[in-house]
Write a structure and sequence with these properties.
heterodimer; A: alpha/beta; D-Maltodextrin-Binding Protein, domain 2; 2 domains; six-stranded mixed sheet; 18 helices; 10 strands; 49% helix; 13% strand; B: mainly alpha; MetI-like fold; two-stranded antiparallel ribbon; 2 strands; flat; disordered N terminus
């Protein structure tokens, strides 16, 4: 009798569990359905919902720009759909573009992918140069050109850019006997990356073995390459990375720095690299404005105010994003209006003051949000002005569809090996073999 | 709907329909006919319904298994890029012939084999030992069983990220422990064997408990009297294990070997996340790039769908060869017993 009752009690529990699981599944389906409904029509509330597909932390929402736009346009509702890493975001975007399904009304495109999107997917995007209120002159010319096809169609509007400077630790420089004033530091290596390496050697002599001059070989080679007019492709679209002396020079100079022990044996953005920020193990890092955000996030509180910003030997760009409107979206006109507003100089300046994303519209450089820009890590340094100065010297660089693959090969299958004891020649050969295999169709 | 109503209702009607016209003969004939028809329907139902019931699986398999398989085969004969998947250029067997002198493919194949061996062998041995211990009467045995299954239920991503921290070169706990004992630090990500060993550790951690439970289930099905009579003959615990437990587990062992081999040939998530920033290249010198990872790199990072498809088919063929070898060995084993 007891056993039977226990059995039935158990059966009740099991049934309840199954029922709740089933209900959960159904609820899950139902939720999805609702979402689909609200984003596709949105008529029930009388509002149009514009969706944005973004990656990383672009910060429009965090800076309050959506709220502001919704207040200006009461019939608009904005939703964003964020993928954390661009490596995961971009293949999905390409898939959605080629199958013309699953697209959001606005899609973000990273600068590393813009050349490929312009070359292969341009017909899937609206030509933003023809949209109402868009003025080409608002943007830095090279930023505008990066998103423009040979036929003159502009598929995306620039949001931020990454004018590169050198962030350095004043306290470590002082201990090593180097100047600490940002103008003197800039003068020490102005115009020549070789001088930057020389400064590194001086640093090593003064600082000894506890700290390194620079954070990583990847950071160094990226900084040098970014300041060149031509790197992996020539203007006609041919791959020239193997024969371009600028690339080989950048590789050799980075390898030299690695052999001399000036750079840490680290890969940027890995947990171990994060730790070296926290432990203050290096004195310089190639540094677009957003890098200050990374440094701030990974540093101990006592490092605040110890950094400063000097000009790089030659200025370059690292990072930046575009917003495009796919033709397959549901609310093309509204989406165009939204991104025109989001990328206007005033909004870019607001984004900089809240999130540190540097404007690609020079008109913003004179706005108080930029000129008065400060960062906890750099104390009183007028970083808005410093980065604006770097931004104005960025060369117009030829970019190509597979830039990322080539650069990743040179970095992760190349210069990093020198820090592990390989010769520069072996590292170069290993990198070239990997890159060629990856480029071959 | 109407036909179904007919079939369902007629037998009852046939038995006791009130408004039936008189004249027994004709009605009996009609009745007979109707019954024959019904029985034919019933037979048809018996014959075809089972197919209808199993069809959902096969339809899904067709859509998500067979079609991709064939499409992949078709794509592997072309040059196709992810950026324009409809723009195919016929290249015949080019993508396959180039595999023969693709050193990255063979490097990945070698890595897959080694990681497979380093992970599968200790994993199954340890699973056997754990199952044997758990087979004794233990207090809280359910607790131990749940604990053993916990790694299996953990997501690969979460587990791999923790292992990456443990195996860190500068700040990892394992190197810290080695340092305490007075040994040199090991660069787990960049060493050729060190990295393979580290990746295998993640696989071992994840699958040992799962296999142990399978062994345990099989062990509990072994009749107790076999052990009793062995004990009467004076066999020690160890001899009992060798002569009673192992022979009875033979089919189970074979099953786990087959499943682990298939699993090992497809190892992907662990090496991908073991050096997440280097994407899918499996280390700066591809020292822990497996075939699955190489396939992913070609298809999704480098966007060469044609090449990736050919690699997928090459992996499939390798698996078939392994399957045949397995079948031959198991037949031999069965014959010998």
């Amino acid at each position: 009798m007891r056993a039977a009752r226990r059995g039935s009690a158990r059966r009740v529990v099991v049934m309840a569990a199954i029922a709740s699981l089933g209900a959960g599944l159904l609820a899950g389906c139902a939720d999805d359905g609702n979402d689909e409904d609200s984003s596709s029509s949105g008529d029930s509330s009388g509002k149009t919902t514009i969706t944005l597909g973004l990656f990383g932390t672009m910060g429009f929402k965090e800076a309050g720009l959506y709220d502001e736009y919704e207040k200006l346009n009461p019939d608009i509702n904005i939703e964003e759909n964020v993928t954390e890493r661009n490596e995961n975001y971009y293949p999905a975007l390409v898939n959605h573009l080629t199958t013309n399904s699953g697209l959001q009304d606005v899609q973000a495109i990273e600068v590393g992918n813009i050349a490929e999107v312009v070359a292969t997917q341009a017909d899937k995007f609206e030509d933003m140069s023809k949209a109402a209120g868009v003025q080409k002159g608002n943007w830095l010319d090279w930023k505008w050109q990066q998103a423009t096809t040979k036929d003159g169609a502009t598929i995306g509007l620039g949001t931020d850019i990454g004018p590169m400077a050198i962030c350095y630790r004043k306290d470590l420089f002082e201990k090593a006997g180097l100047p600490t004033d940002r103008d003197e530091v800039s003068k020490m290596w102005a115009g020549d990356w070789n001088k930057f390496i020389e400064a590194g050697e001086k640093y090593k002599k003064g600082a000894g073995k506890d700290t390194y001059f620079m954070d990583s070989p990847g950071g160094l080679i990226n900084a040098i390459l970014s300041s060149e007019k031509e790197k992996f492709y020539d203007a006609s679209g041919k791959v020239i990375y193997k024969t371009n002396p600028a690339v080989k020079d950048a590789f050799d100079l980075t390898a030299e720095a690695a052999e001399k022990g000036l750079v840490q044996s680290q890969t940027q953005f890995q947990p171990a690299w994060d730790q070296t920020i926290s432990n203050s193990l290096f004195a310089t890092v190639a540094c677009p404005p957003w890098m200050l955000g990374t440094i701030k996030a990974k540093s101990q509180p006592e490092s605040a105010g110890k950094w400063d910003v000097a000009q790089a030997p030659k200025s370059g760009n690292w990072g930046g994003t575009f917003l495009g409107v796919p033709k397959g979206g549901k609310h093309v006109k509204e989406a165009q209006k939204l991104i025109t507003w989001l990328t206007a100089p005033e909004q870019q300046a607001k984004l900089f003051s809240k999130m540190g994303s540097f404007p690609s519209a020079p008109a913003a450089y004179k706005l108080p949000q930029v000129t008065g820009g400060k960062n906890d890590m750099t104390g009183d340094a007028p970083i808005g002005e410093l980065f604006a100065k770097a931004a104005e010297q960025i060369p117009t660089q030829v970019i190509g569809p597979k830039d990322q693959i080539v650069q990743q090969g040179l970095t992760d299958n190349g210069v990093i090996l020198v820090t592990q004891g390989k010769s520069a020649k072996d590292a170069w050969n290993n990198a070239v073999k990997t890159i060629d295999n990856n480029l071959e169709k | 709907m109407t036909t179904r109503h007919d079939t369902a209702a007629s037998p009852v009607k046939g038995g006791a329909a009130p408004g039936r016209p008189p004249g027994g003969n004709t009605s009996a004939e009609a009745d007979h006919k109707r019954r024959a028809k019904l029985s034919r329907r019933w037979q048809r139902d018996m014959r075809w319904s089972p197919y209808a019931f199993v069809s959902p699986f096969f339809l899904l398999f067709l859509a998500f298994g067979l079609f991709p398989l064939i499409y992949t085969g078709w794509a592997s004969l072309h040059t196709v890029e992810l950026t324009a998947p409809t723009d195919m250029k016929w290249t015949g067997f080019d993508n396959y012939t180039r595999i023969f002198d693709d050193e990255f493919f063979w490097n990945a194949a070698k890595n897959t084999l080694w990681i497979g061996i380093i992970s599968t062998v200790p994993q199954l041995l340890m699973a056997m030992g754990l199952a044997h211990i758990l087979n004794y009467k233990l207090r809280g045995s359910t607790f131990y069983r749940v604990v053993m299954l916990a790694p299996y239920a953990t997501s690969i991503a979460a587990a791999s990220l923790v292992f990456v921290l443990l195996f860190g070169r500068d700040y990892g706990m394992i190197n810290w422990a080695l340092d305490l004992v007075g040994l040199d630090k090991i660069d787990w990500q960049n060493g050729s064997w060190a990295s393979k060993f580290a990746v295998s550790t993640i696989v071992i951690w994840r699958w040992t408990g799962y296999n142990a439970l399978i062994y345990l289930a099989a062990m509990q099905a072994i009749p107790q009297d076999l052990y009793e009579s062995a004990a009467l003959d004076g066999a020690s615990r160890w001899r009992q294990f060798i002569h009673v437990t192992l022979p009875s587990l033979r089919p189970t062992i074979l099953f786990t070997v087959v499943v682990s081999t298939i699993g090992a040939s497809q190892v992907f998530g662990e090496p991908l996340l073991f050096d997440a920033n280097k994407g899918a290249s499996g280390g700066s010198q591809h020292q822990f790039q497996t075939l699955g990872l190489y396939l992913y790199e070609q298809g999704w990072v480098n966007q060469h769908l044609g090449r990736a498809s050919a690699i997928a088919w090459a992996m499939f063929l390798i698996l078939i060869v392994i399957g045949i070898i397995n079948a031959v060995i198991s037949r031999r084993l069965r014959a010998s017993s």
